[in-house]
Structures are given as structure tokens and as C-alpha cells.
Write a structure and sequence with these properties.
Layout lengths: L1 E4 L2 E4 L5 E2 L16 H17 L1 H13 L3 H25 L4
Helix pairs in contact: 1-2, 1-3, 2-3
Length: 97
């Protein structure tokens, strides 16, 4: 956990000063708040990109807005790769009609 003030970000567990991008406190190893929700968002983004590519593109935009550019690009690429896969799979399931 962490608290953020005008002076910067501090660990709630030990009070050490943290860099803004910290995921865990370098002094005590305590997780920094907010990092868990980003991990869940990133995981959901990749799952949707692989299984429902249209929604994966929406998640890619959300990741880009949140500043996770690398994940946004990767999520978009997974969506692009998944579209022909799923359309070929669905076409094969329908007997090619």
C-alpha cells in the first residue's frame, strides 16, 4: 500500500519514499496500491483480445489512455491475429458456407 502527497509517494507499511512507478516498496517489499488493479486490467485485456477481438481493441485503447503503451500495442496485435483465426474457425464450424 502507499499514500500519495504533494511531496511524493510513500509506503504505508514502512514510510519509505517511493518512485511513482513503484509496484512494491524497495525497503520492505510491501505491494503498492493500484498496481493490482492494473494487473487485472492487463490480464483481462489479453484474454478479451484472444477470445473476443473487438472488445480486445477497446481494451487496447483503454490501456493506451492509461499510459501502458507496450501492453496496448501487444493487445491490439493479439486482436489482429485472433480475428482471422476465429473467422476461419467459425467458417469451418458452419461447413464453409
Amino acid at each position: 500500500m502507499s499514500t500519495e502527497t504533494e511531496a511524493g509517494k510513500f509506503c504505508v507499511a514502512c514510510g519509505a519514499k517511493l518512485v511513482l512507478t513503484a509496484i512494491v516498496c524497495p525497503s520492505c517489499g510491501s505491494p503498492v496500491s493500484g498496481s493490482g488493479s492494473d494487473t487485472k486490467l492487463i490480464t483481462a485485456s489479453y484474454l478479451f483480445a484472444a477470445f473476443i477481438p473487438i472488445i480486445g481493441f477497446v481494451f487496447a485503447v483503454i490501456l493506451g489512455v492509461k499510459g501502458k503503451i507496450g501492453h496496448a500495442v501487444a493487445c491490439g496485435l493479439v486482436s489482429l491475429i485472433a480475428i482471422p483465426f476465429w473467422s476461419g474457425f467459425l467458417q469451418g464450424m458452419s461447413g464453409g458456407y
